[in-house]
Amino acid sequence: YELDRGGRPPPGGELRAQLFDVAFSRAKLLALGERYDLYSERSGLPTWRLEGIREDIEVEILQNYFDPEHYMINPVRSARVVVSFWHTDPETALAVARELSELITVEQTRIRAEAARSTSEGLAQRTQVLMGELASIDRELASLQARGSVDPSDKVRAANLLEIKEGLESELALSQGTA
Questions:
Q1: Which pTM does this prediction carry?
Q2: Across the strands, what pairs with 80?
Q3: CA distance 97 to 82
Q4: No. of H helices and E strands in the chain?
Q5: pLDDT tens across 112-147, in order?
């Protein structure tokens, strides 16, 4: 799923559509059709086979904490979905439904891992920037101190630099998770 501008995942209808677009992609469903011999009479016509498989999948959103009203109360980024599959053989229906559920789980795990990796990279980059800014301030403060200037503008500059440094150190602690 993709987050909206407010950082919230999509409402139920959009979530269902995204599951079909991503977790239940054409290639994955056709491979599933091959494994379970679904719509074998349509095997020469992949689009028809795919259509048959998709028609027999039902995704019900039981609880969607992605909806804005739920998100405001409890910002848990999850949903409870029920995946079912219709087939004349109950064992095949169950096996296919389980595999479809696994496709969702695998895709969501991949998406969350990618988001975590991206966040981690962003924090690492921001940490490097902050450390560079702090080093620059330390050099400038050392230079002002080495000059031993009594000029009031140097003293104001040093006070400003110390204030900026304190803010950067706080931000650095937050980005490193030590605040």
A1: 0.65
A2: 63
A3: 9
A4: 6, 2
A5: 788 788 888 888 898 999 999 999 999 999 998 888
